[in-house]
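Dear all,

This email documents one entry for the complex benchmark we are building for the journal club exercise. For each entry we list the sequence lines for every component of the assembly. Then comes the predicted three-dimensional structure of the complex as a token string, followed by one or two observations. Please use this as the template for your own entries, and keep the labels exactly as they appear.
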Amino acid sequence: MEQALERLRALPYEDLGFAKVDHHRALRKGFPEVIFCPGKTAVQIVEIARRLASTGANVLATRAAPEVYKAVRRELPGAEYNAVARAIIIRGTEKLEPAGNIGVISAGTADLPVAEEAALTAELMGGRVNRVYDVGVAGIHRLFDSWDRISKARVLVVVAGMEGALASVVGGMAACPIIAVPTSVGYGAHFQGLASLLTMLNSCAAGVAVVNIDNGFGAGYTAALINRIGLEGHSP
Amino acid sequence: MEQALERLRALPYEDLGFAKVDHHRALRKGFPEVIFCPGKTAVQIVEIARRLASTGANVLATRAAPEVYKAVRRELPGAEYNAVARAIIIRGTEKLEPAGNIGVISAGTADLPVAEEAALTAELMGGRVNRVYDVGVAGIHRLFDSWDRISKARVLVVVAGMEGALASVVGGMAACPIIAVPTSVGYGAHFQGLASLLTMLNSCAAGVAVVNIDNGFGAGYTAALINRIGLEGHSP
Amino acid sequence: MEQALERLRALPYEDLGFAKVDHHRALRKGFPEVIFCPGKTAVQIVEIARRLASTGANVLATRAAPEVYKAVRRELPGAEYNAVARAIIIRGTEKLEPAGNIGVISAGTADLPVAEEAALTAELMGGRVNRVYDVGVAGIHRLFDSWDRISKARVLVVVAGMEGALASVVGGMAACPIIAVPTSVGYGAHFQGLASLLTMLNSCAAGVAVVNIDNGFGAGYTAALINRIGLEGHSP
Amino acid sequence: MEQALERLRALPYEDLGFAKVDHHRALRKGFPEVIFCPGKTAVQIVEIARRLASTGANVLATRAAPEVYKAVRRELPGAEYNAVARAIIIRGTEKLEPAGNIGVISAGTADLPVAEEAALTAELMGGRVNRVYDVGVAGIHRLFDSWDRISKARVLVVVAGMEGALASVVGGMAACPIIAVPTSVGYGAHFQGLASLLTMLNSCAAGVAVVNIDNGFGAGYTAALINRIGLEGHSP
Amino acid sequence: MEQALERLRALPYEDLGFAKVDHHRALRKGFPEVIFCPGKTAVQIVEIARRLASTGANVLATRAAPEVYKAVRRELPGAEYNAVARAIIIRGTEKLEPAGNIGVISAGTADLPVAEEAALTAELMGGRVNRVYDVGVAGIHRLFDSWDRISKARVLVVVAGMEGALASVVGGMAACPIIAVPTSVGYGAHFQGLASLLTMLNSCAAGVAVVNIDNGFGAGYTAALINRIGLEGHSP
Amino acid sequence: MEQALERLRALPYEDLGFAKVDHHRALRKGFPEVIFCPGKTAVQIVEIARRLASTGANVLATRAAPEVYKAVRRELPGAEYNAVARAIIIRGTEKLEPAGNIGVISAGTADLPVAEEAALTAELMGGRVNRVYDVGVAGIHRLFDSWDRISKARVLVVVAGMEGALASVVGGMAACPIIAVPTSVGYGAHFQGLASLLTMLNSCAAGVAVVNIDNGFGAGYTAALINRIGLEGHSP
Amino acid sequence: MEQALERLRALPYEDLGFAKVDHHRALRKGFPEVIFCPGKTAVQIVEIARRLASTGANVLATRAAPEVYKAVRRELPGAEYNAVARAIIIRGTEKLEPAGNIGVISAGTADLPVAEEAALTAELMGGRVNRVYDVGVAGIHRLFDSWDRISKARVLVVVAGMEGALASVVGGMAACPIIAVPTSVGYGAHFQGLASLLTMLNSCAAGVAVVNIDNGFGAGYTAALINRIGLEGHSP
Amino acid sequence: MEQALERLRALPYEDLGFAKVDHHRALRKGFPEVIFCPGKTAVQIVEIARRLASTGANVLATRAAPEVYKAVRRELPGAEYNAVARAIIIRGTEKLEPAGNIGVISAGTADLPVAEEAALTAELMGGRVNRVYDVGVAGIHRLFDSWDRISKARVLVVVAGMEGALASVVGGMAACPIIAVPTSVGYGAHFQGLASLLTMLNSCAAGVAVVNIDNGFGAGYTAALINRIGLEGHSP
């Protein structure tokens, strides 16, 4: 066992003391490590971003407060900020042509930050994204009006708070896999997203898989992994 | 205060030792007491039923096991049993003409016992009931096909387990009030009906009020109270 | 299916990018879309309000902070603010004569914001509303003193925090349907309204249906739907 | 510390291997150890009962299945069984004259086993008990009719399932302390007694303290401790 | 029924619009209404306090922020403030001689605000109170050292956060009834007091009844009700 | 709107009274309706199976007890039974060549029924499936030994009970999307699958989406939808 | 990475199809794999036991029903059964002399099965075990009487249901590390062990670590790992 | 019993009114009382620290805000502050040589405060500590690279938020006991640490015991107790 471990040890990562930046991830997963900002200091985030950027890859930092962005931009002037998605992006040297078709559908206006995080992540990973927003089931004809665009997707991300019924309705009609994202939009017996989460986990429509509450990043990432299947130049 | 209480004491009820049968309820609420069977012995149920039946009113006993029905029928030969709804009925001397229009909609085949309990209760309380079953959102065109019948209701009862999305979809389209009944049909993260309950409480469609999990009786009763508004000869 | 969807697409709504304003709702439900403010920016709320107001309908925005009201008033000078209910109202061109009889009963002084949201919503939807406040069961004679007014209602809204027992006590006496609103007033094992919610869902009195914690709007809306049954000029 | 512990060691108890019977408890608490049957084998229960009975004290075994009673009676022929309360009693040599006034009030017929466990325990501990059963808030005049008897109690035990509102209503009227017992009678969002428990813990009426779900024994015991205050010959 | 209600209506209370001050409570329960401040505005609190004070009774307002006290003192200069217990007191014209013996025991320094609220309430209601603080089970000899004082109580209030084991240890030794108060002192899997609450509800020691998390007032009130049993001039 | 609904009504389904069999689903989703057995009577299941089989499609009934299978086989002699997966299969007239590559990985022996349900569903929907069982993290070298086979999958299903850590470990190494299935295998603080569910929803590895507890069917279905992307003759 | 994995693959395990028996575990952890029976068929358990026994190691199967034991004994006649602990043991060829000092303390008679599982596991792993049973805090002098034996332990296992206070009391006095095991013994607001679990996780005494509800095996195993520190011939 | 208690009373502690400082703890447990700051005022913390420091022992105050540190330093100039761990340390007169080997492993950068609290506590109690940070399972080769250092520990502390899988992976490989610390690092269905807590309690790897969420202190303390077993001069 000792010898085997020795080899695994040789995989590339960089030790910053407070963090071990996993440079091997890009090889292993096809995409580099992404920085989840909460609980990290601005100094730590800047340092990790700098190391990742130095490899020429796309860098993505999610749930970044505006102050964090300012700190990053000071060190890395090319950094961009998507205020709705609360995300920092540093574009790498190589650019992937957007391909495939990922639909991102959201139920209400308050779900926008999560939906945008999903869309942005998927785009950064090479997917072509179609946004269809504010089509919740209280006015279901709005969903039907966008059905042409929706029905062409290889994979759909459905973002909804409140009772989260949109995932089931879309799931009952669409032929492609669906990644459902419950949001914490709601109050009272919503319990900070639990209600939407349970709705989506119990969907009577088959083909619906779920990520964590407000996890737009995870949904966009998974959708991008699905979208690149069979796309030339996109597989790892 | 003593004198006031003295008067309230004079209201009619019958003391059986283990139970105090509330004969005043029919006057107060417009419908007599209903027997909820779980936790009561067959002997107790028979005795309460006999006292209620003696007033000539309709008697309803819910969640009654077949054995309980047998015990009741031995004493009260006119008792009927609705096996799907698990309910015992003893029809009273006066018969109310069915009136109004109550729609009872259910999502799946496994929701039938709850839906039937609601329909039966509403009928016994003088409502005319329209049943539309197995129209869950996984095949939403089945719901649309029955829309004509649904849209004419004064009040709708929507019964659904799993993710319970049907209440929101119907709520987004219907103009009348909706009483939603979450059922315990589901598994895993359904938590015995919690998932459907939370869905319905968080409905993004307005005009949806909710009763307890599997409470077909309560939904049918409330719908009947709503249905009789403005109906001649039906108000208390 | 394609053709059917095409027709549904033709229903009127307005796409603002971040929102799709559902102008068809007034036709479908009898009342226009209502703006739930949390999670929306002031800019978005102002824009949606402007579009809804342009149709001449009543506009209601709930859970609106005073800052939001200021932003709305700047654009729409006729906007009013009900500080207790935290609601913005823009009165439409057509005015419905208040009719029917909706009782709004609350248990304690701290429940006032929710009770007022219910009363205001019901009034805006054409109901005549009777307010009976601070009649919780710790001093039950206060409830009895208002019973004359309560007993004449077509439908009752009962608002209560703490243990929420008021809904059951009223439910045991009243002949009309009851919409119960649990509030988050309480502490400790109240779990932000869970205690009142469970109390009301488990009411031993029949005819009680429940809306989400603190959902005064939903209760007022449902009560108004019930209240208008059989009222001339009020049905959709 | 060693010496202090040495003295505590000298307190009387009997080691049966699987159990250490605490004979000192009668001195310390004024009442001997009580046997809670679930999780103990019949053989173990019989043995503990025999040791306790040998001191001449009253013996009480709660939640005892009929089979357990049969096993006990075989060894201890004087043992009695209260089938409703599911309790075994072996009366001791000394008999306390019933004194004071403990009211035991219950909401519904299905709450009887818990109410009887409370009443029986209180009686065995020397209290005079007044039973008032089936006076739930759905027919509140039944409670008022018994108010004379209730209002004379030194302490009240209030037993209720479903939404458990009875504790608050009684608490709003009574001048004495109240021990509230939530029961597991209910279904769905009752969550096996959680709903009644939360109701009682959040009572808006002061002077209400709560014991575990279905814990009739604990309520009866606490009520008896309160009842004996100031009663000659009853204090420890 | 109408006539009976008419009489109950005649009971004294004062309608302030936002509140109905229950002047009858002092007659009914032996103590006047107490003001629970959260959710009420300073203006409302001042007004209610003024009405209660005008009857010459003791006035107690719990969970009062310092700002609220300042507002009250401006109107009612005799008002006192207990900063630890966060309570406002306005002493009435009649003074009850402290009597009986109520022990208030707390586990840790952070539990002091709750323990003081209990002690203060009990004193205001005529009880003589013995405080024993910071005797948690991590250093159990500190409890034993105070046992002489504790063992003489007619009733004990035990206040504890963290795992709340103190209630069981005291309950295993004391001969009098115990009112246990779980506090929200803790973190992580303490879930804001749930851990202490469950501990106390499941106490293996008999004679322990529980009030809501952090409800020092309720415990002091109940203890005072128990303490006054058999005390001359203290019963209602 | 009426005309639009009229068209949707024309979509094919068959009304059996207790069920509306959705024949349109095969067109819409690419796979026919699947029968979830719990809550349905054997008679209902047989009837639905017969109608689905009559179209020549594959029929799948999940969570089927052996008795149900016997009832089905009596009517439909070609029906097969997979006892581990508790599933009934009736093979249709058309046979899809297995294609793509779906890995199904499970953590422990007790997870087999869920893993087999996933594998079976995926196979029936045209996927080629690779099973790798009992490779939980307590002996992680067993997982590494199968890595060659695992790393070639287009999509992975990871099935795990207990703490469900396998999904994260696989997710940290694999380049393809992962559908994680928490199982109810565990006890105590596992809360019937809640522990594994939360683990998987909170995975620190990106690219993991989750289905309901024990929902092998849903995972297999979703994996099959992903697997068929870009496969000729497999898309709908 | 491929080469590293290749080496890990070479670690010894045996593939039975439904299980991969991890023979390397004894080397890695110092003790062989243990069979957790629930969810495995008798056939599977017998087969795994046979493979493990063939290496000459001690075999332990926990939570084994008597039927499972019978099936095992048929194949492996040397198998023993501890009925209280519900465990099957097959003693290996090498015998470790019991050493060190592990105290196993339990609160009540109903906790015996869990306590015995812990004691048995610890003994099988080479520990000398001291059992002290039925010393719950309701009669705390029973604990003090055994303190001499308890205070000499290198590590303590404390097993308790109900409110689980014993762990804190022991933790406040003992100088060695404590492994606390909450049991599911209790009812109502015990929530199948949740109450004891939370108590132990929130212990105010330092040095207490917790295992899953009813997990006597895990506690005994961890205690044995701690006990063998510094013992000659016991470390791996 | 009275005499026994008298002796326990003689154990040394100091009564500050708001706190009873337990000077006997150092004798009993081998380490003095530690100050948990939340819920205590700065004045109280300073006073307790001063009393403890006066005995010449090491003083540790956890979860201390910077303001609290400033207040302490004003009175006790030798006080140090570890800002990452949020801990105040006052080094005593006697210094223990670091001995043994405690590994502290953490999963992510945001888990640092908890990991440092554990490491610091263990060091203060005489342990030699090895830190291995940011080796979460999303990049598992980072863990393997540090395995040499990890595998030499007598006891391991594993700190992880999100899904907390690291504890199981380490537990599957290590031969020593593991104290697992779930952290509140996560969001959504993490429920403030519940997800990591459940993961660790349900670990399929044996030898893992768990402390409260974010309880770095408790883990470090328990690990130090384990580490000192058999170390000369370190046992109490």
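Observations: The first helix of chain B runs from residue 2 to 9. The mean pLDDT of chain B is 91.
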